[in-house]
Amino acid sequence: MTDSWMTDPDPSTMVTPMPESTRTIIGLSGSLRAGSYNTALLRAARGLMPEGAQLHVKTIHGIPIYDGDTEAEHGFPTAVRELGEIIAKADGLLLATPEYNHSIPGPFKNAIDWLSRIKNQVQPVFTAKPVAVIGASPGGFGTLLAQDAWLTVLRALGTHPWFGGRLLVSHADGVFDETGELTDEGAKNKLRKYLEGFVNHVRLVS
Questions:
Q1: Terminus-to-terminus CA distance in the chain, angstroms?
Q2: pLDDT tens-digit profile of 17-71?
Q3: How many percent of the chain have pLDDT more than 90?
Q4: What is the mean pLDDT of the segment spanning 159-168?
Q5: Which of 14, 38, 36, 17 has the alpha carbon at shortest distance from 169?
Q6: Mode of pairing for the β-strands spanning 5-6 and 130-136
Q7: Cα dist from 18 to 166, 201, 204, whole Å
Q8: If you average pLDDT over every residue of the chain, what do you get?
Q9: pTM for this prediction
Q10: What is the mean pLDDT of the segment spanning 109-119?
Q11: Partners of 161 in the beta sheet?
């Protein structure tokens, strides 16, 4: 048994909606590390999505540090523009966040800051987008404080955050094997349950 845990979903968020077309969720990892636990968590989520939903895993690789002069002179970098288009077209966004010094990692926040600069009234990147936050950490708190820190940012972006549950994977080195596969059955079950709740939220608000 691991320390990975998820709060019980709010019953109001678990209402089963009428069947609809397949929902596309973008899973965005905030880690640049090749052996990232958070990227691995999203890969596991990809295989545990409920029926009628699919998850595509993306990363923040290639996104430079934000510089207003660069934006003014050259516009948006290719990596920013392409990722923004992908998120804008998706039905929902699942952030997998590391935790650095009890808060949001700088590279991840930088990527979101870049994306927030894209102004597209027809298909905005974040406005009214259903969003959820998960995280995995070698420590004992499973990115709890980083997830809390994201709430203010998500509110500022005008998203529709899902508050029906929490997924905090602690002591991640004992939950994933050396290849990055999620091997702990308890963690898998909690992740599956979390995804069911979030996808229901996506269907209800999008």
A1: 36
A2: 445 689 999 999 999 999 999 999 999 999 999 999 999 999 999 999 999 999 9
A3: 87
A4: 96
A5: 38
A6: unpaired
A7: 24, 12, 9
A8: 92
A9: 0.90
A10: 97
A11: 131
| 87 touches 28 (CB < 8 A) | yes
Phi-psi region of 191 (alpha: psi -120 to 50; beta: other; left: phi over 0): alpha
DSSP element (H, E) containing 80: helix 78-89
Residue count of the chain:
206
Q: CA torsion sign, 194 to 181 to 33 to 57? A: negative
Say which DSSP state 121 is in: S
**Of 48, 4, 42, the residue nearest 197 (C-alpha):** 48
d(CA 135, CA 144): 8
Measure the CA dihedral 154/159/163/165, to 10°.
-90
Copy the structure tokens of residue 150. Answer: 């994201």
For residue 46, which of 143, 181, 202, 206 has the smallest C-alpha distance? Answer: 181
pLDDT of residue 5 exceeding 60: no
β strands within the chain, DSSP E = 5-6, 23-29, 53-59, 92-96, 130-136, 160-161, 167-169
Under 8 Å between Cβ of 194 and 48: no
Amino acid at 6: M
Q: What are phi and psi of 12, to 5 degrees?
A: -65, -20
